[in-house]
Structures are given as C-alpha cells and as structure tokens.
Specification:
CATH class of the largest domain in chain A: Alpha Beta
Number of domains of chain B: 2
Shape of chain A: globular
Order of helices and strands of chain A: HHHEHEEHEEEEEHEEEE
Structural class of chain B: alpha/beta
Oligomer: heterodimer
Shape of chain B: elongated
CATH class of the largest domain in chain B: Alpha Beta
Number of strands of chain A: 12
Largest sheet of chain B: 6 strands, parallel
CATH superfamily of the largest domain in chain A: NagB/RpiA/CoA transferase-like
Strand content of chain A: 15-25%
Largest interface: A-B, 77 and 94 residues
C-alpha cells in the first residue's frame, strides 16, 4: 500500500536529514525534553477571592455572564434559568438528580440525535476547570459533563464551576487536566464569536449564543 | 514526487503582482484597516504578560527540540492515535494526500464534505481535487466561506477575507446565498446580520453532511491528540457532528507532550487574533466512544517539509505555528496585501516557506519581497529568525543563478562581480568614485537623482538617489590627517 511506503520514506528522509543514530535516541530525546527552558509563570499567585474576581471580569469581557451560588445548587440553577426564561434543558446522562430543580424539564442526553439537540432551550453541565486570566472554562467528554455535540448545538449553555476548580494561569489548568489528557477536551472562552468581518467582534456565529457561568 | 504549494508554481513574480495590488486603493484600505486593528490588539495582549519573552523562548525551544527528534515523535503520535481507534495515513506529497482523502470519502459514498479552515488543505489544493472527483467541499469558517462564495483567494493565514469589506461581503452573500429560503428578507452590511446569514446558511449542512475535514494546530505525540483552535464554533461543528472525520496535518505540527500546550495555548491566541484565549479549543485523540465521529483519520503530510530539515537554519522555518503575526507586522504586506505573494502562505513566513518547500524551484522572487526590517522576527511567538533566512535564501538563489551560463552572463551578475572587484581595492574605489562624479552630472536635478537610465532605473523608480558629494569620506579623512600632522609639526 502506498501509505506504508510513504511512511517508511518519510521517516527515512527525516532520519537521514537529522543524521539520526538509532542507539539510545529515545532516551536522549526524553532527557532533552526535560531541559527545555520554562521560565514563564507556572505557579498561581492570587488568593481565591482575587482569583474569582479576575475570572468574573474576564468572563464578562468575552460576553459570558457570571452568577454566584447561594448554597443550594438546585435553587441557584432555577434562579438563573428563570431569569433567562429557559424551561426545557438537556443535561448530561450522569447529571446529579439533586441539581434538577422542580418546575423545569430536564432531558438526559441518552444518544439524542443532532435534530433533537436543537429542540430545546439549552443545556446545563458542570465542568473541569475555570481559568481566571483568560476567562476560560474547560469541559471534558464524560457522562458527567456530557459529550461535545450537546454543549455545541443548543443555543444556550449554563455551565457550573466550583470555586476550587478555578485556577489563575493556563499552566496550572494544564497540570490539573493531566489526568484527563486522553479524553476529548473543549476549552471555551465566552460564547462563539468571529472577527472575520472588518475585525469587528460578532457574537454567536455557530455555537451557543448565550453562555452563563454559575460559580458555586 | 511533486511538491505543490497551492498555485504558487504558476503565479506571477512578486514585483509584478504587487504592482496590481498597489493600484487597488480599496484593497489597500481594507488591508490597512484590518492589520492596524490586529496589530494593536496583539500588542496589548502580549504586553500585559510579564513573561511573554519567556513564553517565546520556551515555544522556540520546544519546536526546535521536536524537530530534532521528529521521527521519534511521529511514531509515538501514530502509536497513541491508533491505540485510541484512529487511523493514521502518511502522504509524501499533495497528490498522495488528496488521493487518500478522496478514497475515504468515496468509500462512504458521500457527495459533500464540511471543512474547518485548514491551511494544509489549501496547500495541497484539496478542494480542487474533491470537485474533480465529484465531491462538493463546503468551507465553514466565515472568512473562508466569503472567499469560497466570492470565487476569491485567501489573502491572510488567519483572516483570509481581510481584503474584503462589509459592503463587498453583502454583495457576495446576496449573489450566492438563497436568502429568501433562509428567511432573510433584506440583508444589510451590518456584521451581525452578515454573520447571522452565514449561521443560517451553514446550519443545515452541519446537521446533515456526514464527513468533516480539518487540519490541526498541534498534534500531541504523548497522547495522540490533535488540537484545533478557533473562534466561531464551526470547527467544533465539523469535528463533532459528522460520522467521519479526516484531519490533514503537516508533520511539523507535532509537539512532544500535553504539558507543552501550556505554552502554545498562551502564545498562539495572543499572537494571532490578539485575544487572551480564542473562544474554542478542541482536543481529541482518535475516537471517543459515544461522542463525535466514530471513524477518525489523520493524514500526516510531508510535501517538501523534510527537504527543510538537514540545515538547521532552514529547519527553523518549520517552527511556524501559523499565527499570522508576521504578516500584520510586515511593511510590505501592509502595502500589497496577501494576493501578491501568489501563495497560500503570505507575508514574511510565506516568503520563506513557499520557496523552500518547493526546493527553490518556484517563487524565487519571494525572498526579495521584504525590507529586512526585522519586525517579523520581533513578533514571532516561536522566534523564527525570518530576516536571516530571507538573506540565506537570497544568497542561495544568487549562487544557483551564477552556476548557469545565462546567470553568469546576466548584466546584473556581471555588474555585481565588477562591484565586488572595485570594493575590494582602495585604488579602484577611488578611481570609480572619480568617474561616477563626472558621469552623474547629467542626472542630478535640484540636488537629487530622480531617474537613472537602463537597468539602473529600477532603483530610482520609487526613490530618489543622493548624488555623490564633491568630497568623499575617504578624501575628507586623508585631508584631515594631513592637516593634523601639519598642525603638530
């Protein structure tokens, strides 16, 4: 098969170009990776309250709206959804039942079709990490946080972030995501946007047009 | 083996194409507007990080390291991507990549595909190939859609429709979109409305077309993951809704470990669109059961890249993460926009990557499309020394030309050889100065030379030349020595 020959050819071209010897090459490679200079900021510096206010302002900067929990998560969710006028919500299959307030319809995403994903008012999910400096939320593909299409097709997303999951810098976020690094991950910073028309930022091209973040 | 970089082999040389661009005042206004804004945003976003230089150094070091062990990392990536249920293909050149992709799509009996912005697919002219075999590619990035519907060419790596303004976009949409069917009675040139039209136009495609095509910003060897960084969500749509996903990725996109993303997820968005983080990043490894496409392919593309690897200086070109900052910073790009480069890679990075991928067989005018001011190097988030590479390429091109009889006998070469002799000898230099002072006389008007004859006219076409002064520096110096010596005596 062409691809097999191509594979051999490409790898050979690289080895010849680099004058690579097979002896101990992988060990040398691993050792050299550790010598890469990393003098940039890697350890968070802010106190938790400062972190949250930074997260808040960056989230707003990218047109997301932060809300704050008042103790009972189901009540908090009900408050935000009522404010937004949302009644029919998709939730991930393993979304906690104690987080589903009465008076709303919660549809667990058990293999809903793409079409079904459009027939609702939005989706509610927890997340893995919030990054304060960039106003970013990270979701991983799981039964708890849902699959990727479910947080994409609906027009509204309410995302729940725990205070202890908010970090300051990208490197700290990447460190905490290490355990989920094999999973499909989605980072989002505010709702969908584009600057393709004369560099004017326009919200909501394809993803959810409204992003609310509930900090608990 | 045929390395192809878009249509650059048949494009006009830069100086000729640049003239056409310079005559288009609308184009120049659009380009200036957009590049001014991105530059300012980038400056603010990189300026607010006290550790920006450290991020540049780390990015440079990671990329250099990866390329030094590229064979090791490619095999590691292949192992891990395959372990997660993905299929890895290898393509030596554009034709092989197109054939592989075409075969996969035909195997699914698909007639349409949806595409996320991918430079690599432009490089191999994938859309043209798909159309030839009866498959319709739909670009879904707003700018790419504008370019595709307008039968235009991208003019910027990151914002391909930067040369088109809102009025022109409205005209294109009115002509090419079934607006009535989309429920749009009247379209204005308000960006919100134009984006809404694109949303409605593409929505149905996203929900029904079952093959997606993407590139990747990074490929992580350790996890076998691909990373796509984007703004609109069209990327997420193409990456998650279809049943089949094919990603075409240049072999230089590898990075060693998941941890290395902590550098590039900071430096790429700040450099490219001037944002702290772009709205969406997607990271996936092979197939995720029950989530997204259940058949996932990656095509690892060489297409001339290995040709840049033997020499360290050339190899650095492959560090590029396609942020486009060098385009925005370049005074030449500012004036001409992207089309004049005749390549899918424009601006300073295009001027070094396009000719090198093609072993200097085409695009030989591009290394000269620069003032060597160094602004591109200053903004590069992975510290590619573009000016130095440009000079190296100019040298290579000159030496290659000198090796042919025609090149040897070319008046420019003969003139340069003569100059070299003159500059090497102080006596000849003095004599030449004397001659030049006499010969320049008919060309000096009001203290400047505005027109030179024949071959030299190129120099005065866009600038005046100062005439040689009555007294040269060396004359002044020797006179001064003489006077001083006399004074001491």
């Amino acid at each position: 098969m062409a691809s097999d020959n191509s594979r051999t050819d490409i790898l050979n071209r690289i080895k010849v170009a680099l004058d690579a010897k097979d002896d101990g090459r992988e060990a040398l490679c691993a050792a050299e990776w550790h010598e890469i200079p990393r003098q940039y900021r890697r350890i968070d510096q802010l106190e938790q309250s400062e972190l949250i206010s930074l997260f808040d302002s960056r989230l707003r900067h990218y047109n997301g709206t932060p809300f704050y929990g008042e103790g009972n998560v189901a009540d908090d969710i009900a408050r935000v959804l009522a404010l937004r006028g949302k009644r029919v919500l998709i939730v991930p299959p393993a979304f906690p039942s104690e987080w589903r307030p009465a008076g709303f319809m919660f549809i667990p995403d058990e293999n809903l079709t793409n079409e079904q994903l459009t027939l609702n008012d939005g989706i509610v999910t927890p997340c893995s990490i919030g990054i304060a400096l960039t106003g970013t939320v990270v979701l991983e593909s799981s039964r708890e946080q849902g699959r990727r299409a479910a947080t994409l097709v609906p027009d509204y997303h309410l995302c729940i972030v725990r205070r202890e999951d908010i970090v300051e810098f990208v490197p700290e976020a990447i460190r905490r995501l290490e355990r989920s690094k094999d999973r499909a991950l989605t980072f989002f910073s505010g709702p969908s946007a584009t600057v393709d028309i004369e560099m004017t930022r326009v919200r909501g091209v394809h993803g959810p047009r409204t992003l609310d973040v509930l900090i608990i | 083996m045929s390395v192809r970089v878009g249509s650059s082999a048949t494009s006009s040389p830069f100086p000729k194409a640049a003239h056409a661009a310079l005559d288009n005042s609308q184009l120049r206004r659009n380009v200036k507007h957009a590049t001014d804004i991105i530059q300012l945003k980038r400056k603010n976003m990189t300026g607010e990080l006290p550790d920006w230089e450290e991020l540049r150094n780390a990015g440079h070091a990671i990329k250099n390291h990866t390329l030094r062990y590229l064979d090791v990392y490619l095999e590691e990536f292949e192992r891990n991507f395959t372990a997660h249920g993905g299929v890895v293909h290898w393509a030596r050149d554009a034709d092989e990549a197109n054939a592989i992709i075409g075969r996969i799509i035909k195997g699914k009996a698909a007639r349409e595909v949806i595409k996320v912005k991918t430079m690599t697919s432009n490089e191999i002219k994938l859309n043209e190939h798909l159309e030839e075999i009866g498959i319709t590619p739909h670009e879904t990035d707003l700018a790419d859609l504008i370019v595709q519907l307008g039968n235009d060419r991208p003019s910027h790596i990151v914002v391909p429709a930067l040369h088109i303004n809102r009025v022109q976009i409205r005209e294109i949409f009115e002509k090419r979109m079934p607006l009535k069917e989309l429920g749009i009675e009247e379209l204005t040139d308000d960006p919100e409305q134009l984006a809404e039209a694109a949303r409605r136009y593409l929505r149905h495609k996203f929900l029904t077309v079952n093959v997606g095509i993407s590139g990747a910003n990074f490929a992580v060897a350790e996890t076998g993951s691909l990373v796509v960084v984007e703004s609109e969500g069209n990327g997420r749509m193409c990456l998650t809704l279809p049943d089949v996903l094919i990603s075409v990725v240049g072999i230089e996109k590898l990075i060693p470990k998941f941890q290395d993303l902590e550098v590039f997820l900071q430096s790429l968005p700040r450099s490219s669109t001037g944002e702290r983080m772009n709205p969406y990043n997607s990271i996936w490894s092979g197939v995720t059961p029950g989530d997204g496409p259940q058949e996932v392919h990656v095509v690892l593309l060489d297409n001339g890249r290995t040709g840049l690897m033997p020499e360290e200086e050339s190899r650095e070109t492959l560090n590029c993460i396609r942020c486009g900052a060098c385009l925005n910073a370049c005074p030449v790009y500012h004036q001409t926009g992207g089309h004049a480069y005749g390549s899918v890679y424009q601006g300073p990075i295009g001027a070094i990557i396009t000719p090198q991928l093609q072993s200097l067989e085409h695009s030989r005018s591009l290394p000269y499309a620069s003032s060597l001011c160094g602004a591109c190097y200053d903004v590069c988030p992975v510290k590619i020394n573009i000016p130095e590479i440009l000079i190296m390429l100019r040298g290579k091109i000159v030496r290659e030309d000198q090796n042919t009889l025609l090149g040897k006998l070319h008046p420019e070469n003969m003139a340069m050889q003569a100059m070299a002799l003159v500059f090497a000898s102080s006596g000849l230099m003095t004599a030449a100065e004397g001659v030049a002072k006499l010969v320049q006389f008919p060309f000096v008007h009001n203290g400047a030379i505005t027109h030179l004859p024949g071959m030299l006219s190129g120099w005065t076409q866009t600038r005046d030349l100062m005439p040689l002064p009555k007294q040269s520096f060396r004359q002044w110096w020797s006179e001064r020595e003489w006077k001083t010596n006399r004074g001491q005596r």
